[in-house]
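The records we work with from here on pair a chain with its fold. These numbers are not coordinates but entries in a learned vocabulary of local backbone shapes. To see the layout at work, look at the sequence and tokens printed below.

. . .
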Amino acid sequence: MESGSYEFDIERLNLFLPCHKYDTAIKTAPLICNRVISHTGLFKNTSSDRDPKFTSALLTNLNKLFGTKLSFPTTYHPQTDGLAEIIIQKLEEMIRRFFSYGLELKASDVFIHDWCTPIPMLELAYMTSIHSSTVKTPEMLEKGWNPKLPVDTLKKYFLDIDPTS
């Protein structure tokens, strides 16, 4: 019996993957498998910048194996130029704001500035924020619904408090 498949197109899906500037393709490939492919399945097309991690023989061969076309922005396709950079700038701004408000992570008795740890929650904040270009959240565009967030529960709690008591 053949297994069914579900094919979908997502114009823009952004997953925030904490990695370092000098990570190699060998370190990046499992990250892509564990966070991207496990989340969405395989894409027909993937757009990336020309970072050596993504142009390496390893990831080029993985894309061939998976049947994924990897495309790089060029000066002749300005609609793809700069989108990744804009999102990276937004993420950097979110990380800076997170720590500038004193939201530090505590490891035993020491406060640490670990920028990797809040990435999943910052991704959730980004994916559940209404974007001006679509007037919808990326979660709504991807899944057709918005997840219930902790802030939704807190809003209800604070709205239920009688200010006169």
